[in-house]
Amino acid sequence: MRSSNEAVSQRRDKILDYISATGRTSTEIVAKEFGVSVMTARRDLLYLMEKRLISKSSSGLFKVDNNTVFMKDFNFRLKHHLAEKQAIARECLKLISDGDLIGTDASTSVLTLCKMLPTEYKLTLVTLSQVLPIVMENHSNATIVSTGGISLKGHASYVGSIALSTLSTFHFDKSFLSTSAFDPALGLCDYSEELSNKSKLIEQSNETYLLCDSSKFEKKSLHYLFIPANITAIITDWKISQEQLDNLRRHNYHVIVAPEL
């Protein structure tokens, strides 16, 4: 059963997505759409304003900030920033050794990497992805372990206590994961349910690599996971600006920049 705090957090995620989809909305519409009182809707909207994720126009309607990140569904992400993801994946391949035990999240960046894994490598992959086991069917030397768990709709990902319990039984040589956005001072951002899984994945790994294409910097979100000391390296692409790169390094992140293919 979800706690009251989890229910509020997930409702605010959905309110953000709703405002993004509709463009503008009012307190009354949010109350009706989400089945809450006007007072609760007002409290949620004020919270999102305090986080600078939305703003209120002179007409009294709420709209999203231009730098607010939204958790796009799996199929949307699969079609975007393909060249950047492929370049990042090629850099990741240099970090993988025959015999590695690898943990992964359910991101499309990691899926791109796994499609490129050398078939001669004997690897064990433990994954939160619902799609990766299918993609890896023809990799004759790879053993794929699915965490199982609750299916996060639209994201092809497993979440919840079963997924966390499965991750806890492994100690990974390396983990590869991505994020919807990254702030050097605040960390990774994603849905609250997925952040718990990513935290456990990082905790169980000797080395952790964050696959983060350049579109994901300087964005704002509702949920963050602060884990700077546990990230071995951030792997991004050639489109990152010098200012963004300098900012990451000022926060003591090791950054690998993938060149254009």
From TrEMBL:
It comes from the Bacteria. GO terms for molecular function: DNA binding; DNA-binding transcription factor activity. Keywords: DNA-binding, Transcription, Transcription regulation. Residues 8-63 form the HTH deoR-type domain. The keyword Transcription applies. Signal peptide: none annotated. This is HTH deoR-type domain-containing protein. It comes from Enterocloster bolteae 90A9.
